[in-house]
Amino acid sequence: MTTFLLRRSVERAFQLDEQPAGLSLNPSKALGSNPPYMSSAVDDVMYIVDQVVERSLATSQRPVISSVIPSVARVLDSDFIGMIQRKMRDESYPKAAIQNALPPESTIIAFLVLTNDLDIANDYVKRIVRSRVTSPGNEDTGPSPKSLGSLFPFGDDALYARRTLVSLQQTFEAKTSELISDGIYVMFKNVIKPRLRPLLSDAFRDIDYQMNEAVAEEAIENDEGTGEGAGGAAEYHFQRGWDALNEPIKRIFTDGNFERLLSTTISYLAEVLEKRIWSYYGRINDLGAVRLERAIASLINIVVRGGRYGLRDAFIRCTQICLLMNMEADEWAETQSLAKTDEEGDGVEWKLNLDERARARAIVQNSK
């Protein structure tokens, strides 16, 4: 009976589902809804789940818990998550109609909202479970009128109820996390990745890293005059492209989903940026190496702004290549000496092997 009720409720919730109104990827347009941006079905389904869990616990009957809670988990998996998965796959999959073009805006928005549904539903289930398994008096308990100990005073019934509820939450989290990861990868592959390489190409276009002192001074003056910062034109163009790429998605995605997408994007960006640095082999001199290092540092600062300093780790290889390019001759000799004796006295935890370090050092034409 409980299974039928739940399935019918989920079915009905999706039949009456309403999408958030007024969403747009255009940053200049105000959004017509309030965050978080999700389907109405999530609220409806989670309300029913909360009520079913509450009434099951109120019976204080272990057989009821052993029957109802696993049924809730199965219905959430097959009907709720299953429906969202089918919508993501069949109705809102963000795929471009022609090669090298972006998918339609409406499709991207619908896919973002469905991915949000999973993330928000996961938070709902966590709160439903934690409000009932956390000890009374804990500030994170929430609206729990009775503890499991008072509801199940005999034997290990309270412990059994707690484990069953935790299992519900863990199972649901595992399923939603897997589908969220798939959704994040689809967004990256079909929306972000095709625009990332052109973004870097535009940032470094027409920048000469084989310069004499007069040209270097002129470049610095131009950067200061245009407000382009220490990274020069590369920083200026990259920031504009990076914001145009990420801000439209950021304002619709939940914080958790955007952080996941950003992490995936940065991992790929670090690889592309490293290849670009290697591509300057023999086409850069000492002064150009200094300018390139400043540009790379500025680009990394743009990407990790907002306190995301842990994401810097993805760029360690890039920063170490630049470090070696600009290293003084005596520092390089010391680094080589320590490497031959397998010592790490230079204080650097190298991500580049010995051959890569030598290659990085040789990038600059007129090595110090």
Structural summary, described in words:
- This protein is mostly helical and 368 residues long.
- The longest helix is centred in the middle third of the chain and has 47 residues.
- About 2% of the residues have low confidence.
- Helix 1 packs parallel to helix 3 and helix 6 runs antiparallel to helix 8.
- The chain is built from 13 helices and no strands.
Please give the radius of gyration in angstroms: 27 Å
**Low-pLDDT windows of residues:** 139-145
Counted by DSSP, the helix tally is 13
Total count of strands:
0
Averaging pLDDT over every residue, what do you get? 88
What's the end-to-end separation, in Å? 79 Å
Q: What is the helix fraction of residues, given as a range?
A: 55-70%
Strand and helix order:
HHHHHHHHHHHHH
Largest sheet: none
Question: Strand portion, in percent?
Answer: under 5%
Shape descriptor: elongated
SS class: mainly alpha
What tags apply to this protein structure?
about 70% helix, single chain, about 375 residues, mainly alpha
Quick overview:
With 368 residues, the chain is mainly alpha-helical. It has helices at residues 2-15, 40-58, 62-91, 105-133, 148-151, 157-203, 213-226, 232-250, 255-278, 286-304, 316-325, 329-340, 354-361. It is 68% helix and 0% strand.
Question: What is the secondary structure topology, with strand pairs?
Answer:
Blueprint: H1 2-15, H2 40-58, H3 62-91, H4 105-133, H5 148-151, H6 157-203, H7 213-226, H8 232-250, H9 255-278, H10 286-304, H11 316-325, H12 329-340, H13 354-361
